[in-house]
Design a protein that fits this description.
Radius of gyration: 30 Å
CATH superfamily of the domain at 331-538: P-loop containing nucleotide triphosphate hydrolases
CATH architecture of the domain at 331-538: 3-Layer(aba) Sandwich
Number of helices: 17
Strand order of the largest sheet: 5-6-7-3-8-9
CATH class of the domain at 331-538: Alpha Beta
Length: 539
């Protein structure tokens, strides 16, 4: 059964046509990934589907009484509400029935209501029936299960208003999942989640009864939970009955076929133009009108021909090309029994680590497990105990989770040239490789998006020539094209890399060693993420 039909949807912002001609269907139990470059209109599409915005033209038909759940629709909550109360409010209908059951029970215990006993008992039976039909007896276990899965159990009695932005988003996600709408819209749901929580969410979605559509740059996640992909490009969409990896191959094959057809048409057009020119020449030399007539007939055929656009075989991507000015020694970093306490909690407990030249290492673990603490200690020699030895000729280039740390009033060009001195024209040429074009180089740091901040810091790192890169969540905020460009650059980099990341696709593709932090201890696995996970599960 069809839940939602989208027909010829169009939407403009500031004179720019974001969505030009969007048409597709969503059926019961569909698992859809929505992909496209940043700014292609993916989030706009979700706002239209959830009726937060209206389209300029076209139509959206929803199945009668079908509920659409979208995180941006979460209502404001009272500042005195706890996390549990916020989540419990999801079951408002059940709460109202519980309240009515309590009221009827009070009436039944009131002697003055004796003559209405049968009526009140019938009313109570109906209320209990409604309560059971709505699975009222299971809401507590449902709530506790989702809170545990999203690693929110320890926040149950905390005021919602006191949570960080990321934690509030996780609570909003919990509410949305518990609503179980027929159509669930998730925009970057894995943001703010650690690997264990992402794994829980994947398993939850695999069992989800309704349909869902997900905007995500997490290719591993998309491959795990989706079976269909909608690709938004140049304001239009194409539907592929494949998860992400299958979509990439199919799209590539389609583009190659289109390009071959385009080339064939171009050959035909060139031959027809040559024939027309030749016919006109013969007509002029012989004075024979038949040649001119045939030339005019071919010109009309050319005009009627539907000219194919040249298909873009390569999308515009950032050009990351890391290089190191000088090779480091064989031992890049050696940590011996390092420890760190924060507010009397052991974050790192007698951790040993040796990093050798040329290694590409992924550092993983739950949020709060000490990944960033380990990196900060390594950068600043800031451990409570233990020894930090940095190898000879090691030069460290660091990317923080924020991407860029600088004065908000400085513009892109000044920020880049502050770390990479060069004349303005050359700097603008280099910045264009990182998708900062024209006037965007004068954009202030305070106005940059998360993806732009990351790209600008990576632009600096590319030209600074470090031989040891420490990257904290480098793919956060990057679209898929930029992630792929970064992967190629990191793969070709001849230095050493230590990366904190939740990007399992990146880890499996590039990293041949995985460090797993858990309860202050670190275990080293000689393989990629899937290998490490298998070893942890099977031990």
């Amino acid at each position: 059964m069809i839940i939602c039909t989208v027909q010829n949807l169009k939407k403009m912002y500031g004179g720019n046509e974001i969505l030009k001609n969007i048409s597709f269907e969503i059926r019961e139990h569909d698992r859809i990934g929505i992909v496209g470059q940043n700014g292609s209109g993916k989030t706009t599409l979700f706002k239209l589907l959830s009726n937060l915005e209206s389209s300029d033209s076209g139509s959206i038909f929803l199945k009668k009484d079908a509920a659409v759940g979208y995180l941006a629709q979460m209502p404001e909550h009272d500042v005195h509400s706890t996390v549990y109360e916020v989540v419990l409010a999801t079951f408002q209908e059940i709460i109202e029935i519980e309240k009515k059951i309590g009221e009827v029970n009070l009436l039944l215990s009131d002697p003055s209501e004796g003559d209405r006993l049968e009526k009140n008992l019938n009313k109570l039976n109906k209320l209990y029936e409604q309560y059971e039909n709505l699975n009222g007896y299971s809401i507590e276990s449902k709530i506790n299960g989702v809170l545990a899965g999203l690693d929110l159990s320890h926040h149950t009695n905390q005021l919602f208003s006191q949570l960080s932005g990321g934690e509030q988003t996780k609570v909003g996600l919990a509410c949305l999942l518990l609503q179980e709408p027929e159509l669930l819209l998730l925009d970057e749901p894995t943001n703010h989640l650690d690997i264990d929580t992402i794994n829980w969410l994947e398993n939850y979605l695999l069992k989800y009864k309704g349909a869902f559509a997900i905007i995500s740059h997490d290719r591993y996640f998309l491959d795990k939970v989706t079976t269909k992909t909608i690709d938004i490009e140049d304001g239009e969409c194409t539907v592929y009955n494949q998860p992400y990896s299958g979509f990439v191959k199919e799209k590539e094959n389609n583009l190659l076929t289109e390009y071959e057809n385009y080339q064939e048409q171009q050959k035909k057009v060139r031959k027809m133009k040559e024939s027309i020119k030749q016919l006109k020449d013969w007509g002029a030399r012989s004075g024979n009108e038949k040649f001119f007539k045939r030339a005019r007939s071919m010109e009309k055929a050319l005009e009627r021909m539907q000219t194919m656009k040249r298909p873009p075989l390569e999308s515009r991507k950032a050009a990351f090309e890391f290089s190191s000015n000088k090779r480091s020694g064989q031992d890049v970093v050696v940590l011996e029994r390092v420890s760190k306490l924060i507010e009397d909690r052991i974050i790192l407990d007698d951790v040993d680590l040796q990093i050798r030249q040329g290694e590409k290492i992924a550092l993983v673990g739950k949020n709060g497990s000490g990944k960033t603490t380990l990196i900060n200690g390594l950068l600043n020699h800031d451990f409570d105990d233990g020894v930090v030895n940095l190898g000879s000729s090691v030069s460290i280039g660091y990317l923080s989770q924020n991407g860029l740390e600088t004065d908000g009033d400085l513009n892109v060009l000044d920020i880049f040239r502050d770390r990479v001195p060069m004349e303005e024209g050359k700097a603008r040429h280099h910045l264009a490789k990182f998708l900062f074009f024209g006037p965007s180089v004068y954009k202030k740091a305070s106005d940059l998006s998360g993806g732009e901040r990351t790209r600008l810091r990576l632009a600096q790192l590319v030209y600074e020539g470090f031989n040891f890169l420490i990257l904290d969540e480098p793919t956060n905020h990057l679209d898929i094209d930029s992630r792929e460009a970064l992967e190629i650059a990191l793969e070709e980099f001849n230095g050493t890399i230590l990366t904190v990341t939740h990007d399992r696709y990146l880890m499996n593709k590039l990293f041949n060693r995985t460090l797993w932090l858990d309860n202050g201890k670190m275990i080293s696995y000689p393989g990629n993420y899937d290998y490490a996970l298998h070893k942890r599960i099977s031990k």
